[in-house]
Amino acid sequence: MKRLASSDQGMWRRQITFLLASSGSAIGLGNIWKFPYIAGENGGGAFILMYMLCILLVGVPIYMAETVIGHETRRNPVSAMSILAKQANCSQRWRWVGGIACLTGIIVLSYFTVVAGWGLHYLVSAFEGAFQNESSLAMRSTFIDLLSDPVAMLRYQTLFLMAVMLVVAMGVRAGLGVAGHVLVPLMLLALGLLIAYSHSLGDMTAAFDFMFSFNVDALNWNSFLVALGHAFFSLSIGMGAMMAYGAYMPKRTSIPAMVFTVASIDVLFAMFAGLAIFPIVFANGLAAGEGPGLMFISLPVAFGNMLYGNFMGALFFALVVLAALSSAVALLEPAVAWLNERRGLPRPLAVLLLGAFVWLLSLMSMFSFNALNHVKVVSDLTIFEALDVLSANILLPGVGLALAFFIAWRMDLRKFAERPFFGLWIWLLRYVTAPAVLLILLSTLMQHVV
Ligand code: TRP
Questions:
Q1: What pLDDT score does 7 carry?
Q2: DSSP secondary structure string, 3-26?
Q3: Max avg pLDDT among 34-38, 75-79, 369-373, 415-419
Q4: Is 149 a member of any domain?
Q5: Does residue 359 lie within any of the structural domains?
Q6: In terms of CB atoms within 10 Å, which of 41, 156, 372, 441 comes out highest?
Q7: What angle, 0 to 180 degrees and rounded to 10, lies between the N-to-C axes of helices 347-367 and 95-127?
Q8: Looking at residue 161, what is its pLDDT?
Q9: What is the rounded CA–CA span in Å between residue 198 and residue 206?
């Protein structure tokens, strides 16, 4: 298999397209829905600091690894690993790492679209004024009603999945690239408006105190696991997405500069999302440690009791849907590129097949909130929760560890030796990143399997 100068899927002509598309993939439900609530559950400031260290010392080196693998080979994750393994005289089994990465993307997409579907449903409800003067109790039962109604969930999830499929079917330039250029500025605009709103009507001081006060007592081993797992998830690594995007990156691009910029944008977006959400949550006397219900229960109540709440609530959920869309396309892309390059399926057909598969898989998640809610997989998790743990805590770090190991100890790195930050990167991969990921992996396995 020969190495290619450009990807069969097309390439991005400008660096900014890579930057926007990758930022779009990084900024997603993880930043808006998950980060604020896990920061809330783990006590705020000290957790956020630990999270940033995880991003810098573990996330960024693996992000670099994925991007370099894609950029060097210009192929889908499976072929990329196969080419590099051959060069390094390693077993062809390394291509399985690429395959598992693609598969993980598909699994994550199956439940990611469910949550995005809730977001779409809430967007419509906000417009219709459904949050107006609702109590927490009423909003909680609205959410529970939605979860117990597979048909309602399916309607919005299918709509969302179709939008994802459409973008990916349009290809690397007209689909993924254009989506980055359109969606990321829109998200920044929406977030800016929401922060301005929170700033004028919410309790910014309480939010600042909460997010940046140093509560070391709330930290424990589990918060470390949560922070590290989330660093993977939020940067979109471990699923081949950054290998695929690296393959479409223009030739003369500084990979460390790009990766560092995307990571910074990702972290900043999560913090600013917190500064949009917490002030209005606090101003309405609601709790920050609500857990996953923060976005679907507390926040709608808060909006419903505030000036222009319908409109701002709709804007918030529009932001959620846009962010989810720009991430979801990157979850589908690696597997599409793989089917196209290795199995010769035309892109639209690959999208259709994988989309149908994702849709079927997502039924399991949707039914796990109602008809199948008694089905427990391992250690009492529902199917939805088990898919989340399996992907975020086992498959993602597993792929990340394998990639770190491959780059740090197996790959032929001579041609990189002159590049900036090379020594630091390899040192981190060997002595910080790989051991930290190994630790999280073992600990999760002990927690859930043994
Ligand atoms: N980073 C996304 C978020 O924060 C979710 C995500 C995880 C993702 N892995 C991905 C997106 C891979 C695209 C590709 O919500």
A1: 85
A2: --SS-TT---SSHHHHHHHHHHHH
A3: 75-79
A4: yes
A5: yes
A6: 156
A7: 70
A8: 98
A9: 12
CA angle (155 as vertex; 149, 158 as ends), nearest 5: 130
Question: Is 240 touching ligand 1 by the criterion CB < 6 Å?
Answer: no
Tokens coding 155: 């309607």
Ordered alpha helix ranges (H), 248-346: 255-283, 293, 299-304, 309-343
Residue 221: DSSP 8-state: H
Q: Establish if 6 belongs to a structural domain.
A: no
C-alpha–C-alpha distance, residues 274 and 47, integer Å: 13
The response to whether residue 327 sits with its C-beta less than 6 Å from ligand 1 reads yes
What mean pLDDT, rounded, does the chain reach?
91
Structural domain of residue 405, as residue ranges?
15-448
Here the CATH number for the domain that contains residue 191 is 1.20.1740
Q: Quickly tell me which residue has 């996953």 as its tokens.
A: 292
Q: Is the dihedral angle over the CA atoms 125, 130, 133, 138 positive or is it negative?
A: negative
Ligand 1 contact via 104 beta carbon (within 6 Å): no
Percent of the chain whose pLDDT exceeds 90: 66
pLDDT tens for residues 146-196?
Answer: 999 999 999 999 999 999 999 999 999 999 999 999 999 999 999 999 999
Write the pLDDT tens digit of every residue in 47-73: 999 999 999 999 999 999 999 999 999
**Separation between Cα atoms, residue 161 and residue 359, nearest integer Å:** 8
Instruction: Convert the pLDDT of each residue in 251-306 to its tens digit.
Output: 888 899 999 999 999 999 999 999 999 999 999 888 877 777 788 998 999 999 89
Of all atoms in ligand 1, which is nearest to the CA of residue 239? 12
Tens of pLDDT, residue by residue over 346-355, are 999 999 999 9
User: What span, in angstroms and rounded, lies between the C-alpha atoms of 9 and 244?
Assistant: 10
Q: Give the separation between CA 208 and CA 339, rounded to whole angstroms.
A: 47
Mean pLDDT is lowest, of 40-44, 128-132, 170-174, 262-266, for: 40-44
**pLDDT at position 94, please?**
95
Best probe residue, ligand 1, of 20, 22, 25, 106 (max atoms within 8 Å of C-beta) = 25
| Distances 89 to 60, 67, 94, 446 between C-alpha atoms, Å | 27, 21, 11, 34
Q: Is the CB of 402 under 6 A from ligand 1?
A: no
Asked if residue 2 is part of any domain, the answer here is no
Other beta carbons less than 10 A from residue 200's beta carbon = 10
Nearest CA to ligand 1 atom 9: 236
Looking at residue 75, the DSSP 8-state letter turns out to be S
Question: What is the pTM for the complete model shown?
Answer: 0.93
| Cβ of residue 392 lying under 6 Å from some atom of ligand 1 | no
Q: Which residues contact 383 (CB under 8 A, 6 or more apart)?
A: 364, 365, 367, 368, 372, 375, 377
The count of domains in the chain is: 1
